[in-house]
Amino acid sequence: MKSRGSARYWAALTALVAARAALAGALPPIVRVYVAGLPEAVAGSRDAIQDLCSRSNVAVVVRDAAGADEALLATQRAPGLAEAYVDLRPGTPPRVVVVDGETRQDLERRTLPEGSSLEVSIETVARVVCSAVESSLAARAAAASAANARAQAQSAAAPGRGRAERGSSWTPRVDVFGAAENFGAGFQGGAGAALGLSYGRSALRMGALLSLAGYAAADVAAGSALASFGLLGVRALPMLEWRASSDVTAFVGLGGGADWTRVSADRAPLGYAAVGAGTTPDAIGAGILGTRLRISRSLSALLAFDADVDLDRHRYVIMAAAGSHTLFEPTRVRPMALAGLSLSFGGPDSDSSPPNVEQRQ
Question: Measuring CA to CA, how many Å separate 307 from each of 37, 64, 199, 215?
């Protein structure tokens, strides 16, 4: 009879759970309670606990512990929200133990006052069990909410990274610099500006540079003759850049351009007259090797070394009755050093993280 009644109970519980699942769209958490005591203690505990815990939307299963002690919780493990052992046996202090269904950690452990009636003990046990269940549900809801908040924060950050990655691969920049170049009469100081452009998001990128530089006139002398020598140069250089880190970018370029050299005779040799100034255009081959060191998001320090090669040989001479002699002959290979600032406008260089490295939060 007992086995047949138990089967009817489990069938009814299954139908109840299925009905709730159809209405709520998900199975409610299961709480298993084992009651040790007389039949009226087991039946009274079932009614009280199921009624009081109904507001928590959990499925409460109350079973007769058949005189077993608390060790039953260690042997009767089944998936669920929580498990409880209630001791209402005559001659023993009423006691209730509630453990978490997953971690097996105690949610509540309490011994009730002796001498209480069975009805009072059952009511107290029901309150202890349902209070522990509500606390467990609240803790799980808080953990789920925290996990959801972290997921939302990560998903909110991901579009920002996506937008940065979908941004332009072109990086335009403007450079201003001071320069010193040796044209054959010692290093002359000058200044210039350049427009640069690079393309790509990887560490190795293609680029180009268009620069204009001018050098103040310097004196050259031969005997009593004195002349001044000045220059204006334009360069166009295809370049290859390597972004070694978020703060360091190295570059190399090879190209060419033109120089406009102006020589004026300031003082002629004794007995001769000085002629007017003359300007000579020259074709120039050029190569550059340098680096940019990040100062801020878009501003970098610029350091580079350049070598210019004059494709035409020029020589300035002093004409005399006895013949001519050289006043000044510019060198064909001219080393140059420059230093300045580089200002970029957007592109991958505005990102402060190294290339090809993923961000994790």
Answer: 100, 96, 25, 16
